[in-house]
């Protein structure tokens, strides 16, 4: 057969036994489709790897810059350890120590605890093998190397029922595990305890062999982006109530064991009333364990460690009795269509958060004032704020007060009157007078408020220690928004008292007023533990100027008060409890005034009136290293910034997501920045993790400043070892509601306890060169609608409750960094509120550092506007996109550039005083480099590109040749230049 008359090779693809003629069409379509998909993926990869290169670099644990000519002698911050192994072991021990002192004993009937040495235990609850080590989201930790409860108990001499543990790990109990939403809010809350009906006879029979005691683990946790649910779950009870299956399990334990101990592996208060009907002997709140906290539990159960923790929240029989719960949840602005501006929240309870509500209404009930109504403290509060038991007893004596300049010093002698060694906590509370002036001007006063505390050393039986608590006179001030428009000190009697908890303290004050149980008190107080200070005249001048800066203090948050838009609104007041009791504002759907809806729109008006700025200047220092240790007000900082080009400043300020960019022109090294509050973590953005510690709520329960300092130092050590200069922590929002989803990240319902511990942590972490970004600034006390939600609160509560921990950290520890919140305060995003970011933070408190936004890497954070934030005083955008927030040349006016330069100064100042400067000597510089992942990606992109080209070529050539063969067959003669087999694999064509 001649070449020109040959038929195409037949390779017959068949379908149902017959040749399939459409295979080539299908193959061509699929080839083009596959090519298109590859092209789309390649384009997306190129775009994303370009736009989010810094984030990917951080995730890969790499860098995009390096120090040139490093100077090994230039060590501005050094480790205390000689090796990584030594550091890691020391940090793990700190985590265990935090748990040792944070565990809070709530009940110990008939000396259930401690257990005898070598006791044989049965450990109940699916949570016993699925411990809560931390929370979800930014506060999560790497638990790869976390210690287990069962192993801890064994190491401390206990024998643990293996049959029961295996039941939970590999038996029928393995199918039951709690669930909760992830960091994006997707998912649901469920307890999912193992029903009693699932326990096999083999498991039940094992109880007898391990019957010295039952340890029951109850777990609850939360996560970023989701608050804990308030309503009933499918189980028929609320999430913070004991689930029916849990109660059945507890009752089963009580029926089979003489000693039953409940461990509350929870991060929020839980309603524990039903335990009274079960026969449980001991209850201890343990919080979350971190990596190593479980190691402390065996020591506490066997008495090696005497628990000394105290509650940082009120445990109510009915958590819904807190007035904040009435306005907690999802509420809508009905007439707003502003992007991320359709939700709101009103803090209608004012200052009456946590114990400030329960204790104040209790006092008014005893004093028969304030229209208390139907209120029974004993039926509402199970364990008051500050409560905690010990295996030993303490007595307090010789309480005394001494005036010492701008403060008062209080001393108390603590004696261990029991049989074992232990630590005690002296809590110092103050009661301010509640005057007619206060009532007329809307100033609220709690019956008691914590103003100081001290934890004793470990005291042996019979040993005593005199502890001193110093209280600044400034603690006596209260904010008067409607009257003087500044801080005042009221005229009248101020009571200071030492108490074992908030309720005990209040009873002491009532005793000093001559009240007893005959007047309705639930216990007699001790007047000997109380001192009194009388102020003759109301003082509206002493604290009308800022102690830190001398600046005049005046209202800054009128626009955050709902009364600006609704003058009929009344906050909860102790002058009329029943008459001012909160309701859900506008029934949850508010038709807001037009002026408020209009105010929700972004304000891009430049904050500066500059008409020209200097860039790429030549004056002053040329390298950042020259400014190390220089005063914040030194002109050299701005001269250094003026050497930067507009592109440099934009790169530094606008792209601060988990890194800051190196700036070659001023030899500023780049930084790596990471979450989270419980330890430098890789869980969100990759790279290496440091130690995962018990979270802030457990640190707070220690009431131990020294432990807080050790924790801060440990963060600093991990910072040095991991090369992570910026730490997105600690977190100091308030436990406003028992249902806060990130309560574990925050310390307490009390601002003073939160602030003092925060300041201790920040001081020691900064001693190691950390830039701590204290968060979330401010009024970010719930997760629901935290992105853009408009939060309303009156100025007194904003200043005296929610800003207090941040103020203490800045004034007492010179905190170097802040992270703004995602929510609005009033109509304005917090980072765009000049009253907050500049007037108060810098003007009143003297903040010298860098303020970063919360996450702004994606378009749905579009209300965190760059120009508005810069004008207000925010400095750095937690933005990992190289394109997002990019301003055009026309938008980059001199006024905006001036704001950029001010922000850049603060960023440079913070970095210059951080451990990122280690090895930066006088001759050192920085240069940008291509990270390894990007080089690999370029190679992959080249290969994929060639594959795309090849597929397109082969498929297109096949289509063309097939088309030409069809023309030949139709014409009856082949083209002279064609092969007889145009497509070697075109079988089935007849």
From TrEMBL:
Name one molecular function that GO assigns to this entry: hydrolase activity, hydrolyzing O-glycosyl compounds
**TM segments?**
21-48, 936-960
Single GO BP term: carbohydrate metabolic process
Gene3D superfamilies per record:
Glycoside hydrolase family 3 C-terminal domain (3.40.50.1700), Glycoside hydrolase, family 3, N-terminal domain (3.20.20.300), Immunoglobulins (2.60.40.10)
Q: Where is the Fibronectin type III-like domain?
A: 424-502
InterPro entries per record: Cellulose_deg_GH3, Fn3-like, GH, Glyco_hydro_3_C, Glyco_hydro_3_C_sf, Glyco_hydro_3_N, Glyco_hydro_3_N_sf, Ig-like_fold
Q: Which PANTHER family does the record associate with it?
A: BETA-GLUCOSIDASE
What is this protein's name?
Answer: Beta-glucosidase
Tell me the organism's taxonomic lineage: Bacteria, Bacillati, Actinomycetota, Actinomycetes, Bifidobacteriales
């Amino acid at each position: 057969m001649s070449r020109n008359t040959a038929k195409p090779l037949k390779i017959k693809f068949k379908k149902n036994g017959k040749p399939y003629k459409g295979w080539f069409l299908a193959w061509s379509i699929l080839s083009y489709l596959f090519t298109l998909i590859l092209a789309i993926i390649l384009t997306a990869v190129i775009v994303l790897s370009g736009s989010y290169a810094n984030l990917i670099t951080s995730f890969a644990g790499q860098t995009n810059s390096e120090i040139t000519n490093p100077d090994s002698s230039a060590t501005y911050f050094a480790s205390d350890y000689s090796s990584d192994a030594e550091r890691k072991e020391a940090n793990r021990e700190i985590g265990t120590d935090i748990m040792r002192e944070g565990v809070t004993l709530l009940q110990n009937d008939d000396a259930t605890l401690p257990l005898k040495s070598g006791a044989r235990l049965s450990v109940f609850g699916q949570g016993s093998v699925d411990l809560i080590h931390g929370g979800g989201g930014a506060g999560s930790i790497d638990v790869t190397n976390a210690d287990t409860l069962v192993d801890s108990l064994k190491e401390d001499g206990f024998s643990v029922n293996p049959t029961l543990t295996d039941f939970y790990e590999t038996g029928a109990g393995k199918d039951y595990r709690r669930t909760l939403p992830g960091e994006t809010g997707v998912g649901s809350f469920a307890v999912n305890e193992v029903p009693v009906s699932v326990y096999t006879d083999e498991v039940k029979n094992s109880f007898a062999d391990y019957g010295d005691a039952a340890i029951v683990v109850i777990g609850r946790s939360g996560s970023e982006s989701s608050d804990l649910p308030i309503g009933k779950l499918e189980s028929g009870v609320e999430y913070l109530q004991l689930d029916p299956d849990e109660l059945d399990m507890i009752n089963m334990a009580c029926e089979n064991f003489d000693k039953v101990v409940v461990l509350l592996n929870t991060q929020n208060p839980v309603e524990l009333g039903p335990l009274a009907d079960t026969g449980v002997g001991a209850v201890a709140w343990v919080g979350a364990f971190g990596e190593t906290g479980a190691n402390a539990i065996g020591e506490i159960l066997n008495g090696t460690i005497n628990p000394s923790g105290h509650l940082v929240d009120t445990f109510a029989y009915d958590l819904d009795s807190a007035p904040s719960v009435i306005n907690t949840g999802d509420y809508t602005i009905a007439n707003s269509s502003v992007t991320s501006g359709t939700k709101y929240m009103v803090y209608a309870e004012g200052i009456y958060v946590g114990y400030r509500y329960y204790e104040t209404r209790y006092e008014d009930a005893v004093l028969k004032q304030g229209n208390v109504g139907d209120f029974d403290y004993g039926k509402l509060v199970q364990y008051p704020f500050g409560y905690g038991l010990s295996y030993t007893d303490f007595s307090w004596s010789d309480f005394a007060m001494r005036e010492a300049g701008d403060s008062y010093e209080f001393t108390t002698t603590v004696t261990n009157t029991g049989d074992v060694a232990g630590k005690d906590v002296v809590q110092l509370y103050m009661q301010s007078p509640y005057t007619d002036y206060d009532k007329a001007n809307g100033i609220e006063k709690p019956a008691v408020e914590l103003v100081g505390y001290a934890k004793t050393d470990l005291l042996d039986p019979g040993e005593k220690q005199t502890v001193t608590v110093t209280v600044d006179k400034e603690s006596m001030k209260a904010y008067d928004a409607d009257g003087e428009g500044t801080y005042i000190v009221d005229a009248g009697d101020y009571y200071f008292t030492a108490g074992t908890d908030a309720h005990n303290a209040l009873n002491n004050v009532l005793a000093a007023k001559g009240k007893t149980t005959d007047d309705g008190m639930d216990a007699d107080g001790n007047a000997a533990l109380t001192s009194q200070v009388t102020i003759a005249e109301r003082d509206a001048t002493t604290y009308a100027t800022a102690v830190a800066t001398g600046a005049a203090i005046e209202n800054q948050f009128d626009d955050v008060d709902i009364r600006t838009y609704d003058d009929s609104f009344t906050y909860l007041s102790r002058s009329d409890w029943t008459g001012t009791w909160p309701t859900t504002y506008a029934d949850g759907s508010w038709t807001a005034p037009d002026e408020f809806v209009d105010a929700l729109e972004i304000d891009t008006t430049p904050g500066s009136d500059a008409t020209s700025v200097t860039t790429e200047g030549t004056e002053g220092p040329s390298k950042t290293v020259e400014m190390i240790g220089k005063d914040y007000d030194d002109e050299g900082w701005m001269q250094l910034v003026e050497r930067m080009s507009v592109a440099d400043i934009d790169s530094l300020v606008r792209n601060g997501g988990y890194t800051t960019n190196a700036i070659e022109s001023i030899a500023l090294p780049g930084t790596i920045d990471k979450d989270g509050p419980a330890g430098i973590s890789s869980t969100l953005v990759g790279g290496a993790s440091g130690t995962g510690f018990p979270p802030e709520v457990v640190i707070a329960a220690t009431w131990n400043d020294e432990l807080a300092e050790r924790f801060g130092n440990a963060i600093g050590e991990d910072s040095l070892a991991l090369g992570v200069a910026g730490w997105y922590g600690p977190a100091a929002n308030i436990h406003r509601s028992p249902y806060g989803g990130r309560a574990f990240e925050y310390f307490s319902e009390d601002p003073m306890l939160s602030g003092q511990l925060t300041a201790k942590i920040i001081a020691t972490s900064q001693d190691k060169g950390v830039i701590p970004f204290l968060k979330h600034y401010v009024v970010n006390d719930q997760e629901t609608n935290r992105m853009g939600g408009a939060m309303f609160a009156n100025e007194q509560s904003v200043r005296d409750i929610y800003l207090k921990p941040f103020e203490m950290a800045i004034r007492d520890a010179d905190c170097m960094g802040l992270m703004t919140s995602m929510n609005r305060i009033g109509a304005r995003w917090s980072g765009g509120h000049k009253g907050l970011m500049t007037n108060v933070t810098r003007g009143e408190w003297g903040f010298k550092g860098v303020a970063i936004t919360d996450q702004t890497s994606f378009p749905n954070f579009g209300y965190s506007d760059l120009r508005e934030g810069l004008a207000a005083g925010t400095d750095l955008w937690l933005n990992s996109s190289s394109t997002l927030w990019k301003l055009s040349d026309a938008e980059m006016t001199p006024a905006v550039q001036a704001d950029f330069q001010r922000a850049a100064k603060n960023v440079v100042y913070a970095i210059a005083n951080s451990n990122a400067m280690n090895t930066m000597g006088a001759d050192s510089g920085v240069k940008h480099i291509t990270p390894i992942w990007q080089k690999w990606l370029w190679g992959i992109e080249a290969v994929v590109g060639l594959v795309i080209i090849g597929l397109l070529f082969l498929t297109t050539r096949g289509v063309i040749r097939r088309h030409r063969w069809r023309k030949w067959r139709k014409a009856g003669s082949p083209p002279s230049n064609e092969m007889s087999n145009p497509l070697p694999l075109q079988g089935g064509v007849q």
